[in-house]
Design a protein that fits this description.
The structure holds 2 protein chains of 2 kinds. By secondary structure, chain A is α/β, with parallel strands linked by helices. Chain A has 2 domains: 4-241, Peroxisomal Thiolase, Chain A, domain 1 (3-Layer(aba) Sandwich); 252-400, Thiolase/Chalcone synthase (Peroxisomal Thiolase, Chain A, domain 1, 3-Layer(aba) Sandwich), CATH 3.40.47. Helix content of chain A is 35%, strand content 19%. Chain A contains 14 helices and 14 strands. In chain A, the strands form 3 sheets. Chain A has a 10-stranded mixed β-sheet with strand order 5-4-6-7-1-8-14-13-9-10, sandwiched between helices. Chain A is globular, with a radius of gyration of 20 Å. By secondary structure, chain B is mostly helical. In chain B, 53% of the residues lie in helices and 0% in strands. Chain B contains 3 helices and no strands. The relative contact order of chain B is 0.20. The chains are: A alpha/beta, B mainly alpha.
Amino acid sequence: MKRVVITGQGTINSLGRSVAETLEGFREGRCGISNLEFQDVDRLSIKIGGQVKNYDPESEFNRQQISLYDRYTQFTMLAAREALDQCGLTFSGELAERSGVVLGTAGGGMTTQDENYRSVYEEGKNRVHPFVVPKLMNNAAACHVSMKYNLKGPSFTVATACASSNHAMGQAFQMVRSGMCDVMVTGGSESMLCFGGVKAWEGLRVMSRDACRPFSLGRNGMVQGEGAGIFVFEDYDHARARGAEILAEVIGFAMTSDASDIVMPSKKGAARAISGAMRDARLNPEDVCYINAHGTGTAANDKTECAAVADVFGAHADHLMMSSTKSMHGHLIGGTGAVELLACIMALRDGVIAPTIGYEEPDPECALDVVPNIARDAKVDVVLTNAFAFGGLNAVLALRKAP
Amino acid sequence: MSVNIEVKVIEIIAEQAVLEVSDVTPTSTLEELGIDSLGLVESIFAIEEAFDIQVPYNANEPTESDFDISSVASITKAVSALVQDQS
């Protein structure tokens, strides 16, 4: 089996337009959540989100690209550019054929759908732009990355709601580890912050009107975010041979299904995913220093997640840190695990644990060290990152400091 | 009227081909202008929007439709006919 390392990372989200800006946000415990700005926002009862503000597509893309790139694809391309620039790889010949791209998204081109439904249903138009389908499809972003960087190996999109990115990165990890591919571009993207996207979430009555306060007593729900996180996963020998800078090593992955409920999480399913990832990485509980939590800020997720961690880690649960950066960038749904992986890499590389901000009061049902409000310096060798999706789909990755 | 139609058609095609209007002549073919199949459907969409007409074009059988796309002149002629039918 091959060892798998990360040699590039890129992002755009409400905390920043780059990894550096985002990590600065994590260190400062900055909140990227603000008042939403888009058409018909006044008809929503939820009016906040981790929106990418002052974003002008025309400064990044030409007219033809914009006609084909939904906002979620634009975010993907910007994050991919940063990650691919950093890794320093160009793809041709055999390397191109042994490299691919697996990305996560839940809603795909939601903005494109929203705009065109508005146009035909509300405005009564009978004609839509010819590229609506290639723009809205869930695989559009992965395809544009493969085309731009000449990635000719396995490429596809994973849609498992809030676990999409973790499932995608797990696939990429397994493909490199098994020797199927030398390099995989992976991560995820989401942009559901449009009228229809937020209206649909409103319906579930799980959204907060004021803030995302994971693990805090009195928390009142999740807040949506948008953006992308893209990584380059590479065979360690390949990376070492070319002298690439290694950001971290991916050492384990597990996925489980609760097989119980379409929205309510299960402690057992989450615990099986966490312990599965540790088994895959050959870790003992005391090896794990930090967990990037799913931590949505809903009553149900946070207490279930804490109970699962307590079950898996036993006494060591009191000695590890677990924070939710969703408090800062919001819940990026299908892109969330990817942006959260940045906090894991920051913990391993820089020894800084991103905080859970907006934390007001301890909840006895979430009695773990959630790194409240202020980032913390800590020496960290091994981290886990959790994602638990609607439908009971759980995906957990394990990472270690760069070899 | 048809002069105006030609001017507008040339404008649309020039924009699609990312060319100056002066580079597009009635005898130009779409292939010469570098407009591919996706560019063609986008041009047809723009023509439909500009003239408020329905262009009977199916990308699966481009030669079967009454809408002749062999040159800028043939497109202008077909658009003129559709505009005529409308009025």
